[in-house]
Specification:
alpha/beta; globular; binds adenosine monophosphate
Length: 502
């Protein structure tokens, strides 16, 4: 099938040609004709399939008739993250070069003022994250009664991020007669319910299974012990990588993104960070620096990196094995895009066995191990993290001290490794200095590593709702945490109150 057989307008076809696309991708070939007829679409497709153009191109053709009015946008695209929203805006700039359309972006973390001006001018296309959109609506700065086309993109990610109540609210605020184009990589029951409630007789278009990984990606597993060793393993992998151009590195937790970023920078790598608690300017700056090649490593959390379209990423490293196997598919899909080859290496500890099995059964094949197995690794460093210490303290004291005695014995036999590893810990930064290097006992609690820079409150406010545990910030801080001012700790002597003499 050719682009000119899909029914797109001349202006859109010219832009597609300028973009250099020879033929429509399967999702485009199947979704564009019914979308142009005004049908609702249920598209089951992941990023990388060309789904953005599958909704952008028919929207542009349909928007050629009519004009937007102040405060009443004509079309609305909902995206789970600011980066995805900004990426869709770029697609409108690319495919809409021959159109004079007003495109407004409503995302958290940037000032209301500029966004309001664009809405007041009349937006043909409004691209928004749900939180900021509803803020605007609730302040009376926006009417949704003129929406002709509603696009809900990455619906399963919206579900993960707790946005579904917002989506339901938006679906009720837009006119009943609008056209809905709905895209999701997977169809969990909550998403099916949503489509049943808000799509009218949709055309279902399904492209590749979400569980498939591109054959252009070489996948491997590398055994490591935890934390400091994983950082060293990662550094070795980066230094030894063949055909290395750049890499996205995934951590399960935002806190670890900040720690790993700091460690890599300290070791002389040019690295940026991207996670949901960074303010918008910092997120955009990191992403731009990576896209422009100013930094060659980008350390990310899943939420921030999902769906990012960076065409030429040579390597993906999973610093942590993802605990949700579909995340593995999304993560490694950041490399090997558009027919290029890519490498995806996952660092796994012995505790990750369950998650590795789940991933392998999801993708339907075994991932090869590379390098020494767990048995051949040098013994782990005795630098338990606070939560590991707590876990041990819950009634396993005897077992743990047995283990650590045994471990100390083995370490004494291998005295040659010790000094090397102590130096390695010291190199990891302030946390590892001092007591660890001086041979602190294995059971002594280690000071928690410094937290990432404090995040400003963001407007992706639903990010604060219950999340999947791998995006958390670790155990909650109770009261003032470690920061109790000393005057509050001083003992207080209570004197009996003086009774007034009658
Ligand atoms: P998406 O799935 O929308 O994130 O698109 C993934 C990538 O495919 C983007 O870099 C697009 O520029 C590219 N793309 C979209 N449509 C086509 C096409 N018909 N032919 C070649 N590349 C395309």
């Amino acid at each position: 099938m050719k682009f000119d057989e899909l029914g797109l307008s001349e202006k859109v076809l010219a832009a597609v040609q300028a973009a250099g696309y020879a033929n429509p991708t399967p999702i485009q070939a199947q979704a564009i004709p019914p979308a142009l007829q005004g049908r609702d679409i249920l598209g089951i497709a992941q990023t990388g399939t060309g789904k953005t153009a599958a909704f952008t191109l028919p929207m542009l053709s349909r928007l050629e008739q009519g004009r937007a009015r102040a405060r009443v946008p004509r079309t609305l695209i909902l995206e789970p993250t600011r980066e995805l929203a900004a990426q869709v805006e770029e697609s409108f700039a690319k495919y809409g070069v021959n159109h004079k359309l007003n495109v407004a972006l409503l995302i958290g973390g940037v000032s209301f003022g500029d966004q309001e001006t664009k809405i007041m001018r009349g937006a043909d296309v409004l691209i928004a994250t749900p939180g900021r959109l509803l803020d605007f609506f609730d302040r009376g700065k926006l009417l949704l009664t003129g929406i002709e086309i509603l696009v809900i993109d990455e619906a399963d990610r919206m579900l993960d991020m707790g946005f579904i109540p917002d989506i339901e609210r938006v679906c009720k605020l837009v006119p009943f007669t609008r056209q809905t184009l709905f895209f999701s990589a997977t169809m969990p029951p909550e998403i099916t319910r949503l489509t049943e409630a808000f799509l009218h007789n949709p055309v279902r278009v399904e492209v590749a299974r979400a569980a498939t990984t591109a054959s252009t990606i070489r996948q491997a597993l590398v055994a490591s012990h935890g934390h400091a060793e994983k950082r060293e393993t990662l550094r070795k992998l980066i230094r030894g990588a063949d055909n290395f151009k750049n890499a996205i590195i995934f951590c399960n937790r935002k806190r670890d993104v900040a720690i790993l970023h700091r460690s890599l920078t300290k070791h002389g790598f040019s690295a940026g960070a991207l996670h949901g608690d960074m303010d918008q300017l910092a997120r955009m700056a990191s992403l731009d620096a990576f896209k422009n090649g100013d930094v060659s490593l980008l350390v990310c959390s899943d939420v921030a990196a999902r769906g990012l379209d960076i065409p030429d990423v040579s390597h993906v490293f999973n610093f942590d094995v993802p605990t949700h196997s579909e995340d593995y598919v999304h993560r490694i899909g950041r490399t090997g895009r558009a027919g290029r080859s890519g490498v995806a290496i996952t660092i796994a500890t012995e505790d990750d066995a369950k998650y590795v099995d789940q991933i392998q059964s999801l993708i339907g094949k075994a991932i090869e191990w590379e390098g020494p197995g767990f048995d051949e690794l040098p013994p782990p460093l005795e630098t338990p993290r606070p939560h590991e210490h707590r876990r041990g303290a819950k009634g396993d004291r005897a077992g743990r001290s047995e283990r650590s005695r045994g471990e100390r014995g083995r370490r004494a036999e291998r005295g040659d490794h010790r000094q090397e590893r102590v130096e390695r810990i010291e190199a990891e930064g302030p946390v590892a200095k001092g007591p660890v290097a001086m041979g602190r006992p294995a059971h002594a609690p280690r000071r928690p590593e410094a937290p990432p820079p404090r995040a400003r409150p963001t407007d992706e406010r639903r990010d604060r709702r219950p999340r999947r545990h791998h995006e958390d910030d670790g155990p909650p801080v109770i009261g003032l945490g470690d920061h109790v001012p000393s005057f509050l700790l001083r003992p207080v002597t209570l004197r009996p109150a003086k009774v007034a003499e009658e």
